[in-house]
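So, can you check what follows?
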Amino acid sequence: METTNSRGEANVLDLVATDSRCSRFGEAIKAAGLAEKFSNAEDLTLFVPTNGAFAKLPQDKVINLMKGENRAQLQRLVLLHVYSGKLLAEDLKELNALRMEAGQEINVSVSPDLKDISLANARVMLPKAEAKNGVVYALDSVLQPASSASAAA
């Protein structure tokens, strides 16, 4: 996800899968059974936590989430990072919050120059990457469900 240019026929899942900074989220997508959704869906915006973002979480929690018996929790966590619709920085600037695929609203903050973008307490790491079916932004923190004590880890 090093470019703001479109990557031809790559979909959002392809972009996540080929970015070594985001391999943990790619694994989470697959473990949650959502790979096909991301491959075939139209106009998605993914806010993808980097491996560094996952490293901030207690590792026993991450390992637990990846277990089959916790698939519903993992799906909710993954979908908390997905917006149905293609959002560019200019679009985000016009919004105060996003209703993510998990059903939860996440606060959005964008600086006037579009260089500082935050979702809850997670910072968007620019630039974005565009795919044939959406846009992918990297995040420096993992967004957490509302029932958690904090908005981002």
